[in-house]
Write a structure and sequence with these properties.
Distance between the termini: 45 Å
Order of helices and strands: HHHHH
Structural class: mainly alpha
Number of helices: 5
Largest sheet: none
């Protein structure tokens, strides 16, 4: 922060740019990302070796190829809540669901 002659310090231009990004109301929508991936039946993704997965499936992101219903049934939470969890917790949940 730079101090002004009057009042509280004002943010530098880099800081104000960073804050203005947040003030625009831009949000990430996990449901929108889901539509970019094709959906596969859970049987094709659970407990499979990477070479057994459908072509184009990222073995580390199998959960992203599930329908919303299968995602919630297997992982016990919706996509938005899942993505807010720490990565170690996501990994534990994916292991229990057979998606790791």
């Amino acid at each position: 922060y730079r101090s002004g002659s009057d009042g509280p310090p004002s943010p530098t231009s880099a800081e104000s740019t960073r804050f203005s990004c947040y003030s625009r109301g831009t949000t990430w929508d996990p449901e929108a990302e889901e539509s970019d991936n094709p959906h596969f039946a859970s049987e094709l993704l659970i407990n499979k070796e990477p070479n057994e997965l459908p072509e184009g499936v990222d073995p580390n992101k199998r959960e992203m190829y599930l329908s919303n219903m299968d995602f919630e049934n297997l992982l016990g939470t919706n996509r938005a809540d899942f993505l807010r969890l720490p990565s170690w917790r996501q990994g534990d949940m994916k292991k229990k669901a057979g998606l790791f």
